[in-house]
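Thread: Modeling a multi-component assembly for a lab meeting

Hi all, long-time lurker, first post. My supervisor asked me to bring a structural picture of a complex we are working on to next week's group meeting, and I have zero experience with this. I have the sequence lines for every component (847 residues in total). Could someone generate the structure of the whole assembly? Inputs are pasted exactly as I received them:
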Amino acid sequence: MVEQTAAPILELRAVSKRYGGAIALEGVDFDLLPGEVHGLIGENGAGKSTMMKLLSGVYNDYGGEMLLDGQPARFASPADAQARGIGMVYQELSTFPHLTVAENLFSRRPPGRGGLIDWGRMRREAQAHLRELQMDIDVTTRMGELSVGTQQIIEIARVIFSGARIIMLDEPTSALSPPETRRLFEFIATLKRQGKTIIFVSHFLEDVLEVSDRITVLKNSRKVTTLDALDVSKHQLVELMIGADAKILQQVYEGETGAVAVRQRNAPGAVVLTVEQLSRVGRFSNISFTLRSGEVLGLFGFMGAGQIQLARCLFGAEQPGTGKILLDGKALNLKNTTSARDAGIAYVPENRRDTLMLGQEIYKNITLAHLGTLLRGLVNPRAEIEIARDQCASVGVRPAGPNLPMLPVGALSGGNQQKVVLAKWLTKLPKLLILNEPTRGMDVGAKDEVMTIVQELRDKGVAILLITTEPETILSVADRALVLSKGAITAELSGQELTKENLMKHA
Amino acid sequence: MSNTASTNQSLTPATAAINWARRRARDLAPFMTLVILIVFFSLTTDSFLNVINLRNVLAQVSTLAVVSTGITFVLLCGEIDLSIAAVATMTGVVAAASFGAFGLPGGVAILFGALAATGLGLLNGWGTTKIGLPSFMATLATQQIASGLGLYITKGEIIYTLVPTLNYLGGEYIGTEDPWRLPVVIVCGTTALLIGHFVLTYTKFGRYVYMTGSNREAARLSGINTKRIVATCLAISGLSAGIAGMLNTGRLGSAQGYGLDDMLLDSISAVVLGGTSLFGGEGGIKNTLIGLLIFGVLSNGLNQLQLDIYVRLWVRGVILLIALIINIYALKLRDTGATE
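Re: Modeling a multi-component assembly
Sure thing. I ran the full set together rather than chain by chain. Output:
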């Protein structure tokens, strides 16, 4: 229970932060009560990430005041924030997969004297600490062998062990299966009982509603409101976050099925992709399906079901063991990514870092995939910049401006970087577009834009394979869906059967 | 960089100039170092700042320029080539031996040398891409092979009969009157730099080299055949080293199976001094040119100071270290500026 009359453990008063000319936060007030789970929601660009960076000590130049335990505080660095009891667990965990659980828990300060590590003590203390948190894991296991959900819980344990009283979780459930999500929520409940305070940042509104005591909504760099979680519905939260006019947004968030109005389209055309008994030892086996032009086929499965490897095999980035891939009826031997690209296949991987050169200009990134055919002869920056400008406009990259193509890609927000990836592959309309988690970590608005682009491509006759762990994404745009579980296809759903429950059931 | 995007601020000329300088830090810092060194040596010695000496500086770095062009490609795509000095030595010997001992026509002997050098470069490429060895290992092995071949062919002796063309390219001059005679080797070095610059800046291949070095996996997942790019860069490096080796025999008047060991570190120093990143994706021939000039001016200037030969060596090392530190600081300034 949260004591409403207790003094806040952390407060922000009229906090503002600017980057150059852009406003990231303006006049934000925030208070965190001891022992509560406080949800933080809002689009990217609404200020969530900036606020977290402020609270975790990454920034110390901002307007306004922060109070910790009632005293004015301004963290000099992330180390300073940690020393004062703020712990941050990022969406992409910072664990060491080759080291054991014990080594990870003690990674920042191994026990021992005079520079030597006391391994026995490390093991014992690590095991004891986990037991206190009601976790029964063998601390000698190598971190990389554990599931993502377990690694995450250990990462949270490490942060607590380093003395955190306030723990910030950034998109903690985006990579978890439902059972793992349950386990995380139970763990959070345990932490609450032990007096820890938690800030839960997520775009999964159901999760936020379930686990939070209070919820703060950010929009356009300002705080909209803070409410009691029991007093508000998902629909109301969506409205507070983005306003009343949503388009596909409402469907995406509320996971409605049978939204036929959204699916006005032509009937799918000829078969473009045929996969026959494709297998890769240890990853997936006997995958067979067909995909037609103008069709969006969803591929749903929890993390680790083999979908990433399957996608990479379809793009020539990995080699399958056995089986056949046919494009337009002809068998393909995809020995490398170049042959896949030349055959008309495009691939948007789940990690932007795997496909963008963040330090290079946007226009160079955009023209890269089809540079050979876009330009004749020599490289031509002026022409490339024009092409990049057109592409950025058609996918809606922001901030728009005459100099946009010359900026380094790394200067854009995550959602806009994702759009640049799409733009890169759309410089030449592909026959087959493989999208791997195209909207992961994106805010509601950007998700909507990407899904609209996907629909437009479908209407132009592109065959689209949409791989995702979010059922809402499939429901908002796919005509059919396959469910992949532990490397095998367990169901094919379409029409009335294509519901969230069925997708989850077969995974 | 962020300031060009924001239209809210009006920039004073001073701020605009600082921003421009920040973006160009990778190129400006080495250039400043070069200017400082030239000024320093001009002031502290009488013999530095005259036409003949400056001409010598250029001549002294010309063969280095050829091999540095090649290694620039390799560094830009994110790899390294440790075999260049050995390949250079070996190629000089192959050309000389083919001409002298085997009586092949001059042109064929040179071609032979070039093919041998390129072959070793392709061997590096094969080891790195097909086998998957880190380039450090693969080129280390090739270095041994090339060294060994060089010594095997010469059996430790020095060959004095060289292809006349090489004598001309390496040792002769255009024009007859001092100080206005131009050593042909400077023309060779400049040509190599120009060709390298053209390829890297204006061709698709050059763009792929930069992208491959910037983020190998991202380039691969964008459909680029990164293996082919890397292998080609290593072949280019081998060929450049071979040409440099042959030019060097012309300059020295002899071919021997050893003695070019400095070339490896000298060329990498020159490239890195100029601002090209050891990690790939940033830099280029313009940077290599400045780096070569810094290197040449420094070596020559220290000679003019008439320091003890042993003092010269470590002083040069210290100055190189300082120049590199300045480079890194300039880049840090650039990067912190961009996030404000």
